[in-house]
Design brief:
The structure holds two protein chains of two kinds. By secondary structure, chain A is mainly alpha-helical. Chain A is built from 25 helices and four strands. In chain A, the strands form two sheets. In chain A, strands 1-2 form a two-stranded antiparallel sheet. Chain A has a two-stranded antiparallel sheet with strand order 3-4. In chain A, strand 3 and strand 4 form a beta hairpin. The two termini of chain A are about 25 Å apart. About 0% of the residues of chain A have low confidence. Chain B is built from 14 helices and twelve strands. In chain B, the strands form two sheets. In chain B, strands 1, 5, 6, 7, 8, 9, 10, 11 and 12 form a nine-stranded mixed β-sheet that branches. In chain B, strands 2-4-3 form a three-stranded antiparallel β-sheet, with helices on one face. In chain B, helix 1 runs antiparallel to helix 2, helix 4 packs across helix 12 and helix 11 runs parallel beside helix 12. The chains are: A mainly alpha, B alpha/beta. At the A-B interface, helix 11, helix 19, helix 24 and helix 25 of A face helix 5, strand 7, helix 7 and helix 10 of B.
Chain lengths: ~500, ~450
């Protein structure tokens, strides 16, 4: 098990698979480049991303604002009418910044030079699923996103510690309000249940003890940063996962990471994320062993995973349901087109069940086949028309509504946007644009990196035949049709 | 009519219409024929098949986040309640008295009206042994009806469909929302979900001419058709989902998506036709829950064959500043459900519907330092309908400190006996196969 994939099995399909999973996919030319590089160098190209400069600038508001607390205080004590206006302004400011932040991240995923790093940021966002609905501050959300980026493939203990001290997380799971007389168990529970060990590997008593140990780790709202406050720390003796003493937050994290189960848990979750299925017990043991041997560092584990035979087995390749983000970003990448404006990206992914920076709960998105419902599937098919043909008529409804019953907002929002269709001349050759059989083959190669069922290919061919001489609009419709198949929902 | 001939008719239909002339295919005719046949079968059986136009309907209403039961059904004269909650205990003027011991939160005026009309029953102290205080785990326990130390992959409603539904169409279960609750997870998944009927369809693009777009839609249908081999294959089940899934190995994502694609096609025309035609005959508040219930009312009025609807309301995780938040949520709940029942009355369907609420847990007896409450255990649930056994059911758990377990009240009614009552007495099916073991059915109707 975990043998490296032999060079003889390296071809367009396997290279495309690597690019799809370790990134967000790419056009045929990029896949061919990886084919030429061979498996080992291809993995390095994606994984050793530090070697590639990423010049994306931070949003201009992405720094601590020393006047913010004073402003919020002023808002709270202002007379009623003034207060309402100030609250409205604050909400609007945060909404604008969040939209900017979403666009900024979508941009990095769709055209940034380090797709694997962004894919890991997306993993960590789903793993430590924190929502702006409670945090209510775009700066904190950006900061957490940057933390995931900085430690994307780093050390597990370092990452867990940083997350425990992250302002957005301190707010999200109420650690900021925990003190020795009233320890709040929310973070203590989830760090074990959802982040690092999984249900059944600790007791209720471990939770209350961890909550006591974590008291003192708090948020300095004035400076918008983590603070350790000894005065609210419970200095009494605690026993946590078998260790006894005046334990603190660092002890809690260290003790969690020291559990053999910790390595099993996170390596299984990573395998599931990249391979699209839970690993067998045996495979999980091997992955966990690699992880522990490396000192709980993610990069060596990922290198072994992406190079392994198992990662390219038939049950893995083209058998993962695309997440809404993968659907959007991947489509933009294979079609070599610009991302739609941030509000459209947000509306599309949210409509398909994945609202970045606002996961449904701390468990994150369930993923897999749960992305697909009758409703979401039709929405994918309709949004394919919006994306490819630049026809937003299929996107009406509640997509952009802040609250239910504001469906009309969609039309208003969309009216202001000049949609861009995919550029047929850029992605298909002259021959492909005129020879229908060649076009079907090119569509399969670019969009699916594999073949349609024979009957489907015939249907597509018949559609093209019925259009007579092809114009760009017909080809765009054909792209939309391929995207409106069950097969396209997989990667 | 024998089941065999029903199924043959059904396969016949699927072959000739779906595969033959998709464009001329009209769903409702097919559905009503099939249902009529299946319903006739069911008449002789002790178990009612989960489909049919005149059958009883269950509406499950999830109050997500863990509703504070103590401030919902308030033990207003209880000293332990007042001493545990110096800030949060509700005053006499903030409650609607049921009797000398308990009262409803004042913003549940809608529920009080239903209670007085004999259409609301309150089941007290509902929970389960060894309660779990994690949202996700406890929600999962309620959704799968499992013991708290066991993990079930299927949901209780999914198992109900698996047990009674070999022949019903995908609309037997309808979730209003973007994703399917775990309660619907089944060996052979059934049910559809959507949040807005207008968008529940394959849309034609605007630009090209009409003829051209018909070609696009026809191509879409063909691209999403299951293989003929699948459709022709013999199958002991009878649903579209089962037939389309029979020929491929189960569990594969592609298989799942293909089945969903077919279910989407089948149900989309029907849902849209009904939603466009039907009208609400009551005044609802303006909220997401109210919008969901409005839609459910339309679908019921329009004659959908649905037996189980699922709606949800979120926001009950009140760790901080609970009073205003819960007041708003409960008002929305009471007013929305009251409007829904008014709508049912106008439709003449009061006696056909049963609304059951649930929340994954109640909250601690003691308030926390942030004007809120933390995750707890047992809580009341509500059952609403024209035929409910109105009044207080079960027993209010003791709040005496010595009777608490880790600061939580102990349950007096296992939620699965409520499910058992709903299954046996309302959905007319045996509860043991669905719940995995015998629970004493609570007399809910």
């Amino acid at each position: 098990m975990l043998k490296p994939l032999s060079a003889s099995k390296w071809n367009y399909t396997t290279a495309a698979h690597l690019l799809n999973r370790a990134g967000f996919g790419g056009p045929p030319a990029q896949i061919e480049e990886l084919v030429a590089l061979g498996p080992e160098k291809s993995v390095s190209l994606l994984l050793d991303y530090e070697k590639i400069p990423d010049p994306t600038p931070d949003p201009e508001w992405a720094r601590p604002d020393p006047t913010r607390m004073a402003a919020l205080r002023e808002m709270r004590s202002a007379p009623m009418e003034e207060k309402q206006q100030m609250q409205k302004d604050e909400r609007q400011l945060q909404r604008q910044r969040m939209m900017k932040l979403r666009g900024w991240w979508f941009g990095r995923m769709a055209s940034g030079p380090r797709p694997l790093q962004e894919k890991m940021v997306l993993f960590w966002h789903g793993h430590f699923a924190t929502s702006v609905e409670k945090v209510r501050d775009a700066y904190y959300m950006w900061r957490q996103n940057e933390l995931f980026r900085r430690l994307a493939t780093g050390n597990w203990q370092q990452l867990l510690t940083a997350v425990a001290k992250d302002p957005a997380m301190l707010i999200w799971l109420d650690q900021a309000q925990s003190r020795k007389n009233h320890p709040n168990e929310n973070f203590a529970r989830e760090v074990m249940e959802l982040f690092a060990l999984g249900e059944g590997h600790y007791t209720e008593k471990d939770i209350t003890e961890a909550a006591r140990a974590l008291t003192g780790w708090s948020l300095n709202r004035e400076e918008q940063s983590f603070v350790d406050r000894p005065r609210i720390h419970d200095t009494g003796e605690k026993t946590f996962l078998g260790k006894t003493g005046n334990l603190d937050g660092n002890d809690v994290i260290a003790q969690i990471v020291a559990q053999p189960q910790a390595a099993r848990f996170i390596s299984a979750k990573l395998w599931n994320y990249f391979a699209g299925e839970a690993p067998s017990d045996e495979l999980n043991s091997q992955l966990a062993a690699v992880f522990r041997k490396s000192g709980n560092n993610f990069k060596p584990l990922l290198r072994v995973m992406f190079a392994s035979e198992e990662f390219y087995s038939p049950s893995v390749v083209r058998n993962q349901v695309k997440s809404p983000v993968q659907w959007l970003v991947g489509s933009v990448r294979v079609l070599e087109m610009q991302l739609p404006p941030p509000i459209v990206c947000w509306g599309m992914t949210r409509n398909l069940g994945q609202d970045l920076f606002a996961p449904p709960n701390v468990k994150g998105w369930d993923g897999g086949v749960t992305w697909i419902t009758t409703n979401n599937l039709l929405a994918r098919y309709n949004q394919a028309a919006a994306l490819v043909q630049g026809d937003y008529s299929g996107m009406s409804g509640a997509n952009f509504a802040k609250k239910p019953g504001q469906g009309d907002r969609a039309e208003k929002v969309l009216k202001k946007i000049r949609p861009q269709a995919a550029d047929v001349g850029k992605i298909f050759t002259e021959k492909e644009r005129t020879d229908k059989t060649a076009l079907v083959a090119a569509l399969e190669k670019r969009l699916l990196q594999s073949k349609l069922k024979e009957k489907q290919a015939r249907t597509l061919q018949e559609f093209l035949d019925s259009q007579g001489q092809l114009d760009d609009g017909d080809i765009l419709t054909a792209i939309r049709l391929v995207m409106s198949t069950p097969e396209y929902q997989l990667t | 009519m024998k089941p065999d001939s029903t199924l043959k008719t059904r396969r016949e239909f699927l072959r000739t219409t779906v595969l033959g002339s998709a464009m001329s295919w009209t769903v409702p005719a097919f559905l009503s024929n099939t249902f009529a046949a299946l319903h006739a079968n069911a008449a002789d059986s002790s178990t009612q098949i989960a489909t049919g136009r005149d059958s009883t309907i269950l509406v499950v209403l999830q109050m997500a986040g863990g509703n504070d039961g103590l401030n919902t059904l308030v033990p207003h004269s209880n000293d332990h309640y007042r001493s545990a909650r110096p800030k949060l205990a509700l005053k006499a003027e903030d409650v609607l008295k049921i009797n000398d011991d308990v009262a409803l939160h004042k913003s549940l005026a809608g529920f009080k009206g239903l209670y007085d009309a004999g259409q609301l029953s309150i089941v007290q102290g509902v929970g389960y042994p060894n309660p779990n205080r994690s949202h996700f785990r406890s929600t999962e326990i309620w959704q799968t009806a499992s013991d708290s130390n066991r993990f079930e992959s299927t949901g209780w409603l999914g198992r109900y469909f698996d047990n009674t539904c070999s022949g019903c169409d995908p609309t037997v279960g309808v979730t209003i929302g973007r994703s399917m609750p775990q309660a619907f997870a089944a060996k052979k998944p059934k049910g559809i979900c959507f949040d807005d009927p207008k968008n529940y369809r394959f849309k034609k693009a605007d630009k090209p001419g009409a003829d051209e777009m018909d070609t696009t839609e026809e191509s879409y249908r063909k691209l999403n058709e299951p293989d003929e081999a699948m459709m022709m294959s013999d199958n002991s089940g009878g649903t579209i989902a089962a037939i389309s899934g029979a020929a491929t190995h189960s569990g594969a994502p592609l298989d799942f998506i293909e089945r969903t694609a077919l279910d989407a096609q089948v149900s989309s025309e029907q849902v849209r036709a009904i939603a466009a035609k039907a009208e609400n005959k009551a005044v609802y508040p303006s909220s997401q829950l109210a919008n969901s219930l409005k839609l459910v009312a339309k679908l019921i009025g329009g004659g959908m064959a649905t037996r189980v609807y699922y709606v949800s309301q979120g926001g009950y995780d009140t760790h901080t500043n609970q009073l205003p938040a819960q007041e708003r949520l409960l008002r929305d709940l009471g007013d929305s459900v009251k409007a829904f029942m008014d709508d049912m009355k106008a439709q003449g369907n009061t006696g056909r519907v049963l609304v059951m609420t649930f929340s994954e847990f109640g909250r601690r007896v003691a308030e926390n330092a942030n004007g809120g409450t933390d995750h707890g255990a047992a809580a009341p649930l509500f059952i609403i309908g024209g035929k409910v056994k109105s009044g207080l059911l079960g027993k209010y758990p003791s709040l005496a400190p010595g009777d608490l377990f880790q600061g939580d009240i102990k349950y007096t009614v296992d939620f699965r006996s409520v499910y058992a009552g709903v299954l046996e007495e309302w959905l007319n099916t045996k509860s043991t196969p669905v719940l995995g073991k015998k629970f004493e059915p609570m007399r809910v109707v």
